[in-house]
Write a structure and sequence with these properties.
Blueprint: E1 12-16, E2 21-26, E3 29-39, E4 45-53, H1 62-77, E5 80-81, H2 86-94, H3 104-116
Parallel strand pairs: 4-5
Antiparallel strand pairs: 1-2, 2-3, 3-4
Length: 121
């Protein structure tokens, strides 16, 4: 049975903490990712800075799945999330039951870290 044009493989979500990437992979191809940095102070947190989905896969819930998994990962690890990425921040506002708000102090610490190393942005 062949795959219909509307059927897409469900991506596997893979966290690569060393690279600061949460990747969506389908059929051995990265089809989207969230780039993030890890904060230690004022508290341990993940700070997503970019969400990118391959144009051929946009509109299929990939970015939403990535944001949900980022918050789920943080929750499992007891970490906060400081969303600098506009998409992740909007996702969090739409899903307050799954995404605790970040304190202004934590958001500022994430902004400072990015300002100190623009390659993170």
């Amino acid at each position: 049975m062949s795959e219909s044009p509307t059927e897409r493989p469900v991506p596997e979500l893979i966290d690569d903490r060393t690279a600061g990437m949460l990747r969506a992979v389908a059929e051995d191809e990265v089809i989207g990712h969230i780039q993030y940095l890890v904060l230690e102070t004022p508290q341990a947190a993940l700070a997503p800075v970019h969400t990118i989905v391959d144009p051929g896969h946009e509109g299929h819930g990939i970015a939403s799945a990535l944001a949900a998994e980022l918050y789920a990962t943080a929750g499992r690890e007891g970490l906060a999330v400081a969303p600098l990425c506009p998409y992740v921040a909007q996702w969090a506002q739409r899903h307050p039951d799954r995404a605790a708000p970040a304190s202004e102090e934590l958001l500022e610490a994430a902004r400072v870290k990015v300002a100190e190393d623009p390659s993170l942005w």
